[in-house]
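Hi everyone, sorry if this is the wrong subforum. Our group has a chain we'd like a structural model of before ordering constructs, and none of us has done structure prediction before. Sequence below.
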Amino acid sequence: MKEFLEDIDNWYLIKLLGGFSLILIGLLKFFSDYFLKKLNSSSDHFYNKNLERIKGEILKNNTLLTSLTENHLSSSQKILDKKIQSYDILWSTILKIKESLPSGVSIVHKILIDSEITDDNAYKRFSTNPLIGKLISSYNGDLEMNKIIALGNPIYQIRPYLSDTAFNLFYTYHGVVGRLCYKFLEEYSKERIYNWKTDPATKQLLKTTLTESEINYINSINIASFDTLLELLEYKILVDLKSNLKFNDSTKDTIEHLKDIEDLLNAKLSSN
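Answer:
Right subforum, don't worry. Here is the predicted structure as tokens:
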């Protein structure tokens, strides 16, 4: 009997322990799954949080980059607009300076050949001419010179937006027109005729922007050479304008352009 009870107790104990083990295994599995889900959830939350942070930084950087790009394009466009406006003012000023040369002085240098301007009887011939002589004598040299000087003032205000080449060409253009006006009227008042081709100051001025071959070619022209000089300087300004404003039109060699101008002037004189 005692042995029987012992067998029962042992079997019950084993059964009880077996059941407890199953329960324990079940609990361990439950808590293992629970903690695993929590861990995965925490991991997903951490990942999503960092992903959103990275997305935010990318968006912020893209916005900054877009803003910087737009500002750069806007600034570049404003500078280009200002340069276009400045070159427009430069060109308008060049034409005004050309037109400001007293018509009597301009006519002499348009229709007479060099020898007619420089011979010993040139002054007498001009002064006795009822049209040219009277016209030249009517000019006030200081007044005419001041008009030409004043025309150049706007260019100094837009100087930062012009290339060095454009400004130097303007300076030469302004200088040779002003000097021709002043010296011709001054010499005429002394009963002499001014020859711009032999004037050391004019020669030095031209050397700042023209090549030796260009100067020699201008000097070789026997009629309307001063007009050709102005045409050449204007052409160089246009070339610089196209270059600085990114106009890709092809440009001709300056000597070739000078020959075209000479042919045009000769044709115009022949027709007259």
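For your construct planning: Residues 217 and 255 are 8 Å apart (CA to CA). The mean pLDDT is 77.
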